[in-house]
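Predict structure. Chain length: 356.
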Amino acid sequence: MKAEVSILIPFDLGLELEFGDEEANRIVKEISARTTHLVSFKDKFSTKAQVVTQIYKFGVGLIEVTFPIEADMAFLTALAIEVRSMKVGSLGILAWVKTFVSSLIEQAKEFASYQYVYRLEELDLFPIFSLEPGSVTDAESFIAQHYKRLYGIVSGEPNYDSLSPFVLEKEKLINFGYYENELILIKRFGAVISSYESQVILNIIRLVYALYWNLRSYNFLLDRELDKAQTILAHLPPWYKFWMMPQRYQKFSEEGMNFVQDKLSIVESIYSVFANVQQILSDWHLRTIYKYVEKEFDIDDIASAVKTKLDRVEQSYNSAREFISTNFFIAVEIVLILSLVWMILDTALLYIISRK
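Prediction complete.
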């Protein structure tokens, strides 16, 4: 069986991007395309691969390694499950990617409109198998014949052959093919496609996977911000150290303003994606696939978690400022009262002395 294998490898740029005037409305830009050294898998095959790198304006880079292969379903399933064992030249595929991620980020800085202090340094792999269009004549029969192997590819389950009927029934494979000879299977850990519109489907997967990685990077960033805000709240100066309060207030205000910049960039970034999928949403079939892939990657849940963390961090900084300003004014009032009491006592003592 002939297929084209595409391995998607997302990485966080730690940037928000703005492309030039002619490309201002584009959400993605290709920055490099080249042929690699040989890619191999456990000495069972080796071939040259095409490597394309794209950057998304919401701050995610996507490396795509693509190569042709001719193999049976058993081999394709083994490749999907053990995709991390692949090598590019003499290096494991993830180690190979790490050798040039930094240079790609430097290239992307040309388009940067904002840079975050931290970035998510994790990498992941998502294999997609595009079977030759027309090789599947009856998608329903093909799925029935290779059900467990297809399930293993898209679910990343190494023990796919031992899965119980309960699991297979609970997490059914759903074919989103428009025609009876069209195969479109997508889950969280892989995809199998046989369609004359495979490039459109691939673009949907690329976009949602990049968005998923973008939200993961925001989660990472906000966890750091939340830890920082909680540390600040735990070390607020007591009211009697009022001389420290103006400096602390200024520091928290600066931290809060920096976070507001991060928040504005994050919110704008999230909504810019949804504003750029109108072409997909205008076609009910593509819209159905897009919404399903979003659901597989828990996009709505992760976006909600990001928004909740944004609010919590902002509340933490606001609480710190309110606490310090309140305590500062309490301390000032106490000092004024003590000064007034001292003035009264001093006047009384002077009066008593003068009477004598």
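Summary: The CA atoms of residues 229 and 315 lie 9 Å apart.
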